[in-house]
Amino acid sequence: MLHTHTHTHTHTHELTYTLLLYARAKYNNNRLNTQESLRNFCVENYAKKDSNINLRKDVTFFRGVLFINSIYNNLYRLNWTDEISGTFYSSYWIDKSAPDLVRKAAFDADRQTFTISYVGSQTVSSGKTSLRGVTSKENMIKKVCTRAIDEAIVQLQRNYDEFKVKTPLIAVSPITASIGRKEGITENSKFEVLEKQEDANGRTSYTRVGVIKPVRGKIWDNRYLSDADGFAGADLGATEFAKVSGGDFYQGLLIREIK
Q1: Alpha-carbon gap, residue 236 to 220, rounded angstroms
Q2: Which of 41, 70, 94, 102 shows the smallest number of beta carbons within 10 Å?
Q3: In this predicted model, what pLDDT tens digit does every residue of 83-99 receive, in sequence order?
């Protein structure tokens, strides 16, 4: 679940991938010298479920590289009303200090109260991912998939306003926030600064009080394993911003990307 302050969202991922195998191999006493012959060898023999290839015996050197061709991401919104909220807190809410197994079982059995609505979808291509910092096939797959999913989420945030993440300013001298390249920030990004307002009925709204933009060279690279890639900004811990407009900001104001 992802909380964007005004809504709670969830999303699903459908990944389509191609596994390209490169090897220096000897099979049936025939040495495979070209990349094309190696590729054909792997596809025709290793990639098939009924393959008789003995990797320990027949392949003297093996490396697998995973490329995600595309990722199809579906975005859903949790349907939430005052009535549903009342049911949740009166019948299902459990305090961490006092676990209630009966309430938990009742919540798990409820298949009607809590529903979701489809918001939209996004398809992205991940391209090639650097394998720096990868020490195993498991790490390789995790890195490529994580980078692809992060990119899909960024595109969903740009295409659906209700999914745009609001994040607080953690400092104002300099202006910084815990957001970075994983969320799609570039030197051309701009963010509105929002102040929370509450009316007499308890309804909340957000008012723009300024605009900020990232400082060149001060964008946090918080993508998975960015430090292993040696990317600039991987060690910053937060992104620094410059004020474009607005008055005095204070810690805790929310920011949201604008076009």
Answers
A1: 5
A2: 102
A3: 999 999 999 999 888 88
